[in-house]
Task: structure prediction
Amino acid sequence: MKLQGLAALLLACALTAVPLQAHAAPVTMPAGVTQDDLKPDFPQPYIVKKGDTLWDIAAHFFKDPEKWMKIWERNLYISNPDLIYPGNQIWFNPEQKATGGLSTVRPRPEIVIKPVEHLEPKIDPSVLLTALARQDFIQPDAIKGVGHIVNSSDQRINYGANDHLYLKFDTSPSEGEVFDVFRTGDPVKDPRTGKLVGYLINDLGQVEVSTHEGDIYRGVVLTSFEEMSRGDRLKPAHVVSTRIVPEYPQQPLSGEVMYLRNDAAEAGQHQIIGINLGLRDHLRAGTVLSIHRAGRLVNDPVTGKQVRLPEEKIGEIIVLVPQQDASIALVTESTNPINVGDTVRNQARP
Result:
């Protein structure tokens, strides 16, 4: 039997919908259609696809598609097969003889209202790891650390990864304990008050303590960013976490850029800076702040008097390591070079 006059099922795509069950008009199951005519274990429902024909749908349920065509003809609620759209769900239950066994679910449009979500920009973990592992800032009273490198097992002057060292500590460490090796850099002063707030330090790598004899401990270099030397200081290893969630402070904050990494003249995106805001100002790892450049003094061409132009936002930073009176931060965005003395403010949530 050829299917003539049966159009291909619909040409349009269904909208996002909440399905509504259509109710079939009661009809009589055609004679000769039994459970044995159905394919075994066919999945339901059948989802109408673009380009489907009635034959395709019948072949999904029946061993002989011609059988189901008789049922389709008796189900008057499907008034026009050409108007069955992609996305319709077709069901067949031979036990429901009163309804012909056939039912369909038609998608209907639905408006879904959800609150606006703010998605924070991702921060590259590799940038954070590099920033946190190589540069640090310590309080003035911690400048001596908790120990230092005495020498090496082979009497070399400079050391790197896997080298064996002799160490000395102020207090006894535990076997297997890990320490950062650091070298003191320049003192950092608050640009407004001139107060010493800490020292820049360069992290050179890490050592793990093993055995000891008397007050001399053995250790092995686990990682090395730069060559270590006799006299380099030790401090408890800090755990570098990249799970920093951006946070926008509500309280008014105002500070300044205190220093730029490597004593640079300017800083830009993905560079480390120091600011004179810290734990005392309720900063934490993840606090987002903005950097502003003071407006220039210019001559008004009409009045001839000097006027100050408005300050302009030139970048954004995220705090990595807050301390009592200062913090290390990463520049996440910059439109102009950042300099010591530029203003740091709380950043309104976008």
User: Anything to note?
Assistant: The helical segments are 54-61, 65-74, 125-134. The longest strand covers residues 196-213.
